[in-house]
Amino acid sequence: MTQELLNTDESFDEIVTELDISHLTIEDDTPVDNFQSEVQQRLLVEPLHSSKVLPLPFLAAANVGLFYKLKGDPIVPDVLLSLGVQRAEDLSQRRNRSYFVWEFGKVPDICLEIVSNQEGDELSLSQKSQQKGKPSCKKEIYAQIGVPYYVVFDPLRQIQDETEMNGALLRVWTLTAGQYDELTPPEGIDVVEQSVWLETVGLGLTLWQGAFEDDVPRLWLRWCDESGQVIPTGAEQAESERQRAESERQRADRLAEKLRELGINPDQV
Fold first, then answer.
1. Strands (E), 106-264
2. Residue 13 confidence (pLDDT)
3. Secondary structure (3-state) at 83
4. Which of 25, 122, 129, 139 has its CA 20 to 30 A from that of 168?
5. Which one, of 5, 214, 238, 217, lies nearest residue 100 by Cα?
C-alpha cells in the first residue's frame, strides 16, 4: 500500500511503497528532565486509562518519539494523545515501538510540552538551537505536520518573555487553516481551577493544586471534564470508593443503633 510521508522539507509529497526505518534512532535512553516533568507526565497519562473517560481505542504516551518523516530526527512531545488508534501487540518490531505517522495513519490529536528549562524550543528557538542551525521550534513543527492541539505548560516559569508564555502558566493552541490560533484567553491561564476545553477531543485541561504521589501540595496540569472537574487517577477513584463505602457503613451502624434503642433487633429486620 502506498503511504504519503513528510519529506525533509516537511511537506506531504514523498510517495513510498517500501518503508526502511533501519537508519532511524527510535530509542536513545535519554533521561527525562527532572522529577517534576516525570511525575507530571504520569499524571497526564494514567488517568486517561484508569478513568475510562475516552472511548477505545486511543493512545496516550509520554516521551515517545513522533516520527513524521523518513529522514531526520523525530520530535518528542512530553505527552501525546491520539484517538482512534492503538499500539501494536508485537513490540519487538521496531516499527511498533515509536509513533510513526505512516504506521498509525494520522498525527496525534494533542501534543503537550512541559517546560523544564529555557532550551526546549517549545515556542521559539533557543540560542543553542539557533547556533546549531535548527530551522523550526516545536510549535512550528507541530503546525506543519497538522497536530490539532498544541499545549505548553510552564510550571516553573522558565519561558516568560513577551514572545513566549508572557506571564501565563498554560497556553493551548488549536490548528486552523494550517496555523495555530490560541484557544486559551489572550493572557493565558495562570489561575488554579481555570480550564480550557478541547472540543474535538472531548477533554479539558485545568491547573490543579494538590498532592500527587507524596504529601506535598504542588501545582499540576490535569485533564478535566467540560465543567472543569478533574479526571481522577486510579488511586483517587479507589480512595473515593473507600470513603463512600465507609460512609455507607457508618450510616448502617447509626440506623442499627436507633433500632436497638427502639427495642428492635436490627439483625432480624
1. 110-114, 149-153, 170-176, 179-182, 195-198, 203-210, 218-224
2. 45
3. strand
4. 129
5. 5
In a domain? residue 62: yes
Pairing of strands 218-224, 203-210: antiparallel
Q: How far apart are CA 5 and CA 265, in angstroms?
A: 75
The enclosing domain of 25 has a CATH number of 3.90.1570
CA distance 223 to 193: 11
pLDDT of residue 103: 92
CA atoms of 105 and 86, how far apart (whole Å): 11
Structural Rg of the chain based on CA atoms: 23
Is 149 part of a structural domain of the chain? Answer: yes
23 inside domain: yes
Q: Is residue 258 part of a domain?
A: no
Model confidence pLDDT, tens digit, residues 88-130 = 887 677 677 899 999 999 999 999 999 999 999 999 999 999 9
Structural domains counted in the chain: 1
Euclidean distance between CA atoms 100 and 69, whole angstroms = 8
Q: Choose between 17 and 94: higher pLDDT.
A: 94
Using CB atoms within 10 Å of the CB of residue 2, give its burial: 0 to 12 exposed, 13 to 18 middle, 19+ buried: exposed
